[in-house]
Amino acid sequence: MAKKKEELKIYLFRHGKTDYNIGHKFTGWKDAKLAKSGINDAKRVARKLKNKKFEIAIQTRLSRSKDTLKYVLEFHPECKKVIEDNRMIERGYGFLEGLTHELFIEKIGKQEYDLRVQGDAFENIRNKRLRKKVQRFFGEKEYEAIHRGYKVKIPGGESFYDVEQRVKKFILWLKEYMKKNKVNVAISAHGNSIRLFRMIMEKASIDEMEKWFIPYDKIYEYNI
Length: 224
Prior knowledge:
Elements: E1 9-14, H1 19-22, H2 36-49, E2 56-59, H3 63-73, E3 81-84, H4 101-108, H5 115-118, H6 128-138, H7 140-146, H8 160-181, E4 185-189, H9 191-201, H10 206-211, E5 219-223
Parallel strand pairs: 1-4, 2-3, 2-4
Antiparallel strand pairs: 1-5
Helix pairs in contact: 2-3, 6-7, 8-9
């Protein structure tokens, strides 16, 4: 009887909350540090992964990714190599980076759309009446650059299509690397790169992906 092929594992998780997350700011590529609650998020991830095994870990250049991974690695002496790969970095928010959500909410009506509930970007706006208010506030051109038009770039930043393309290349590389080296991998990543990673791996639609919120202490596990 043929021996069953052993599956390789990917353990994907989001960094802990940062001061920017708590302050309701668009973060993007700014190097926001883990907040005290973010350290607790990282420790919860570490405990959930404690009994898993992986030989390779991947982080981005941002300290919130690296610092979250440090807590995880405390339980994993079997992990012999850490790779930095910025294809899994957060979406670049361009001119929005550092801007508070509240400043925006005050202008368009806090009672109608609360970013603290809906997520960390206002591309999620689906209400037609509110969308018109946003268009009037920003102007048609600026609005088109900001809302969740899948291929529309934020000025100085990225579209979700841009993020999808780099994450897709990363996944192709990752699968090949894992199979060649026969290793399990842990990835300390970011909310929007995880959204696109999930969409690709789970063969989900853009509409499905847009509804997802990525928790700070959840592990996404995939077999290769």
